[in-house]
Amino acid sequence: MYKKKIVPGVVKTVLGAIIAGISWLVASVLIPKIKKSIVSPYQYGEDGFWIWVVLTAIFVIIGAVLLFMGIREMIQTSQYNKKVVQSGNYIKKTHEKNGAAVFFSNLGKKIAKFFAGIGKGIADIVKTFIHGDWKTKVSYVVMGFGNITRGQILRGILFLLFEIVFIVYMVLPRGGAYWLSMLPSLGKVAPNPHGAYNEVLDQWVATAGDQSFKIMLYGVLTIFFCIAFLYTWYVNIKQNKIAEEILKSGKPLKSGKDDLKSLVDDQFHKTLLALPTVGILIFTVMPIVFMILVAFTNYSSINDGMTNGLFHWVGFENFKTMFSWDVGGVNYSATFGEILLWTLIWAVFATFTNYFLGILVAMAINKKGIHLKKVWRTILIMTIAIPQFISLLYISKMFSLNGLINGFLIDLGIIEPAQAIDFLGGNNPVLARVMVIIINIWIGIPYLMLIATGILMNIPADLYESAKIDGASGWKQFSKITLPYMLFITGPYLLTSFTGNMNNFNVIYLLTGGGPTNPAASGAAGSVGYTDLLITWLFKITQNGSSADGSQYYLASVIGILVFIVVGVISLVVYSVLPSVKNEEDFQ
Amino acid sequence: MASVKLTNVKKVYDNNVVAVHDFNLDIKDKEFVVFVGPSGCGKSTTLRMVAGLEEISGGTVEIDGEVVNDLQPKDRNIAMVFQNYALYPHMTVYDNIAFSLRLKKVPEDVIYAKVTNAAEILGITQYLMRKPRALSGGQRQRVAIGRAMVRDSKVFLMDEPLSNLDAKLRNQMRAEIILLRQKLDTTFIYVTHDQTEAMTLGDRIVIMKDGYIMQVGTPMEVFEKPSNLFVAEFIGAPKMNILKTNLVKEGNRYFVTPCGAKLEVTGEKGKLLADKGVQSGEILLGARPEHILLADGPAENHIPCKLEVKEMMGSELHLHVITEDGTRWIVRVPTIDLNQEQREHLEKNDAELYITFEGKAMHFFDPETEKNLIYGE
Amino acid sequence: MKTQENTASMKRHMGLKAASRISNTIIHIILVVISVIWLIPFICIVIQSFRVQPTGMTRYLFANPDAEMNEGLAIKFGFDNYVNLWKSDFPKWYLNTFIIALVVAVVQTVIVLCMSYTLSRFRFKLRKPMMQFMLILGMFPGMLAMIILYQVLKDIGLTGTNAIPGLILVYCASSGMGYYVSKGFFDTIPKSLDEAARVDGATRAQVLFKIILPLAKPIVIYTVLTAFMGPWGDFVFAKYVSGITPSAYNVAVGLQSWLATTTMTSNYYTMFCAGGVVVAIPVVILFMCLQRYYVEGVTGGAVKG
Lengths: 588, 377, 305
Fold this sequence. Notes:
The structure holds three protein chains of three kinds. By secondary structure, chain B is α+β, with helices and mostly antiparallel strands. Helix content of chain B is 27%, strand content 32%.
């Protein structure tokens, strides 16, 4: 018998309390408004307002449920543990995984450990300087000096080279030092497309000025580079220390040849990871850092910091805009709430319809006595093979006002030609939303069918046999064996597919382009439609320069960060209650 | 062919679990040493540290006098046989065996000679061109051994090589490993959880529990002179009967009082107790099932008990008996010694039996420390 | 009452076989319906790709009821769309996409395999933090990063006419994030094989090339296949990077440009269909040939989570 950990319960309680608390705060802002809107509905009953009320209510409920579950689990766990300990025969579980729980309980420890590590590192540096010999001491300034003088030429040269490159980069006229110094202001002289008069050309030509975009970009890169340099400097010192100790103990040092050899052996992982990591750092991490920073500036297509003027830091101004009720006649808060709500509804439907129908189709194909199994499977798989943009674009045309579907309906006499329905773009938001979900089923079932087939074949047959002997009906077998097994195995997949659907740009953008237009939110940046997800809204903002600012990249960044927060919170909550993470042994 | 020396070897995993504490062992050249213990006792971890597959957290491992802590497995000149054989599924048996030689760039004709020679010794010549998946468990095991054989390595490591085989094949392979050992004449370290394998194969046995060495000794030593309760119970099957009772010292004579009887500790054991100066007190008394004697009827110093369960093993009979005060014993009786009358008696439900044992069959353990009162350090 | 009893007993007499025959028939019918629904768009697109008049969208596949009154509305079929396709920018787009897909397939496979092999086999200090970090990175919507990457590419001159190397660079650079499925596969290859090989004298690199890669053939093929198929469908970023240079379009951007406005649609709709068919055919053939590996990858990846 194991002692159960109390952490998951605590995590749920804390999370629940946080969610419920925040929602309650929001509600306390809303309640006076509700009261007022009852008194004078015209003034306060804006369209989006009620969505906030509903969203807040939902979150209060989620928070309360989590809180309740968490407290119950805590009590149950402690009672159970008491029993286990009393019974005296429990095994200490030394190693336990529990996703979010571990994440939370470790977070504090990790932060503490991180700072302790830095402290230790600094202490190490100082100690080494005091106790080290002159070669080591010189290495504090001239990196790799110790290595070279001790015979590790290759390492030494690499260190030295890195230092030289770093210093040269920093002191170049438009080098690291320049970018860093510009970072706080993001530039003083604005670039201007018609800044100066050129007598030879007899026209006004662009002046470069300071380019905020580049300042931010290279500033961030320089910070990365500085961190890398500091780390390398530290490694250089540590290696000097180690080399000194090894030489003192009378052993030979590793030669450059040994170093190279170890790169294909015990250090092979460094070789393998070098390229992918650099790629990810520059092409994934850097843009994300940049994006986060942009949310705190007024970077837009008008103030693009390349050719058209500067952008500068604005603090939390953009977040305020996103959460306010009235900015130049636009209720961003309501728009955001409405789109978030639809995004969540969409993600729930898109994920679960596909999931259950996919399982059903897989079970139908795999059933004993069904002929031509391969044919059915191949037909479905074809949809995966065909590039999505073709099928989605084509289907969106099929369902359009002049599309085949309308022709078909007219042929059948269901509608008159004049009554043709614009399924995806008409002024019927509910129809458009339902259609998107249905078409997404068409897209998604084949994947789920494949996945479910693989898992269904792995369900031990004796589970079914014993169920049959116990007299379980077909439905019972499905609900008591197949479904729990599937849910258990595919729990993490469900989570990723949920978050993936929240960001499912392709389906929405290619099918409806976000439409039909939502008149209530048309004033918001990027002209919002009823099927727009947060991610397509974000994209539209970057495309449509409707406001005086052009494309408001800063608002898009804010949305990006909010999407991250929503996805992150959902992932954490689901992870902490996921059966596959919680009860690893159940089905094994 | 080399000696292996482990000094204060320690293994601590990342989550601060200590798998091996302070392991010290000197393995002589050409010795066959068996690490044995229940699962999770650290025996495999120790072996893998010798192989270089597991980082050594503390202490040193020396092979042939050279500290190998920082050497990669490929540079340690060892050969290893794995529990699940670890044959390369995409290579034929020939290529599997030749793999290490090819890595060393040995000429093909030498490889051919070595591989065919090994295959002949192991009786797998006709399977050389097959892929491992077309072989039976026993054949795969032979290939795995063959792969290790051609290496001419200093140390031969085996990690539970027989535990994936069925009982019959296991006995057969055990005999073959003994033969192989005579042919190869090199240093062996063999890990198993099966005490029979340990007893039959090892020159010396290292019994481990929870990362500690419990006892190191020859098979005879660990069987006759277990240094603690754990070793006493672990070695021998069925396991030793243990019961709490009193040791009474009367002058120079010692008595034990199991289940109301009073048995004298006769012979050498009594003397040894006296030499150690053991006083009266509560002890754990051990007696192996095969050393317990049965009497036909009530007799002096015999403990009356009832038969609960009877297991017929063919050559012997395992009797599970229960005394009046509820203590359970296992008694092992050779079938051949039983006459007709006794056999009929044992057929009855709840047959009355009377058991006793001699002083030389007794083992004494401290109830607190669980150490052997005579042989424990 | 009596009839109910009768049917109940009849059911019992019919036995298991008949009951399952009925349910199987129903399932067969459902499967046929499903197949039809799934095939209809493809059948329609093929049929419409052969329509030469009118070239815009119609509500009718074969016959237009209005054609009785107006001859000009009659639907005609032929190969003109495919011929015109050949004369348009389409071959250029096709070549662009093919080059991108080919290079990306190679580079991405190498990077993904490096990444997943390392994360599956090596235990180094930064392993867990790295994986957690990538998990968190994946939660950021990539859409905005594109705008920034676009500016960066523009700054180093890899947009517009040079869009193809730019696209290749970006596709390849972040491919390390997609290590998950193949790591799951590597995890299923017993570690004792690595260990046996290392004891046998192999370096880590030799273990990878001589032992692991031959055994990982299905996942290598899966990775190549998905990497190759990715660029055929990428639309948004390709559109960004190629900007207003039609010669640098990939097929997705190019074909979409034919449907971008109502006027374009009325001229190019059937050519879009033909283009779609030409794009789909080789990909589908390739996919069908390697289907087995794809299925293995998808199911393995999902089960692993």
